[in-house]
Amino acid sequence: MILRGAEAVRYLAKPDPSRAGLLIFGQDSMRVALKRQEAVLGLIGPEGAAEMRLTRLPASDLRRDPAALMDAMTAKGFFEGPRAVLVEEAADGLTALIGDVLKEWRPGDAQVVVTAGGLTGRSSLKKLFEAHPSAVCIGLYDDPPTREEVDTMLRQAGLGQIEPQAMAGLTALARDLDPGDVRQTVEKLALYKLGDPAPLSAADVAEMAPVSIEAGVDEVIHAVAEGRRTEVSPLVRRLEAQGVTAVALCIGAMRHFRSLHRLAAGADPGRGGFNPRQERMQRQARQWGVNRLEEAMALLVETDLTLRSASRAPAMAVMERALIRLCTVR
Fold it and tell me: One biological-process term from Gene Ontology (predicted)?
């Protein structure tokens, strides 16, 4: 069975213990790791690992010892309670083994939780979990966390009372931050509000929000968005010297221009003063307009495909040329 959207979010927060297995896959390893952590916590509880009710089996170990998965699934522990077996970084080469184990699963056995990178529609591992009557398949894609996902993080951190503008501010920040940074920000807010009975406010979010989100990358992207063409090449050279990759820069640019497109199209009202970048981005969105932003996103998608292809062109030079072209689109 495959789950998507809000249904997947709810399932990961509270997995069904009567299921034989769960597959979580996606290109963003941090997002997969966070959701895996959430799902395992929901299955075995906060004391599960300490009570040895969680067995970790890296995929590389299973290739050397295939019987380890069946043994871990059927083993009986010293402590009462649900158990889980975690298979990390799996790929299609383990489909047959995992399929055989799932066939033998019985109530009382440990649930098999599998994580994987980006799987295509033709992936045999993905198809196994989609078709299995007692397994769940959840794909994580490069989309900003939903309001429901942010709400789940806040509840897990013990932040129950939240003003509407504070929630809107966190949702806006989540569009610009990596998943791990979003969770870190929520954890900082929980410590900041420890012992304070007042609801979480927009001012609290602004106080704890990162001052800079990958400041160097932001600097060059803002230069492009504001048409400061002469600044682009020196900034790109500096980022390259710091070890920033062309793909990372392209991902950051696509994320920024998607946010501008939402603002220009009126899909994101950008309420309140909770996001220090919001006013600047609204100004950029007005200057670009919907049509030119769509041209910009098409150019960035084309560039991303080139960077990930077998092209021998220097990656950062390809990215720099694309950023300079964006200045002319504007």
Answer: DNA-templated DNA replication
